[in-house]
Amino acid sequence: MGNPDVPPGWSPPQAEMGQMTCGNCHRLLSYPQGAKHVRCACCQTANLVLEAHEVGNVKCDGCSVLLMYPYGAPSVKCSSCHFITKIGEHNRRPPASVQQGPPPLTRNPLH
Ligand SMILES: [Zn+2]
Ligand SMILES: [Zn+2]
Fold it and tell me: Which residue windows does the record flag with biased composition (Pro residues) (predicted)?
C-alpha cells in the first residue's frame, strides 16, 4: 500500500518549514510555513518573512526611488544612484502581491 515511489527509510517532513537568514546576525532560522515573522533565537530580532517567490519593496536611502529586492536579500543596490540600502525591519514593506488577492487555489480537473 502507499506510495511505491517513496524509497524505504524516507520519512516525510513533520511540517512545512521555511528557512531564512536573520537580517541582523545572519544565522539560519527555521520557521513554520505561513509565519509572518520569525524571531531569531540568537539576537532576538524579529525578521519579516517573505516567501521565496515574493519580492519586497524598499525606498532607496540615497534618492528615495522605490526599489524591489528579491526574497532574502540583506541589501539592495539602487540602479539609479548606486547607493546600497540595507533591508531592515524599519524599511520593509509587504510585497505587492499581497494586495492582489489570493492566487487561484482550484484548477479545473480534466475538462
Ligand atoms: Zn539574529
Ligand atoms: Zn537611489
Answer: 101-111
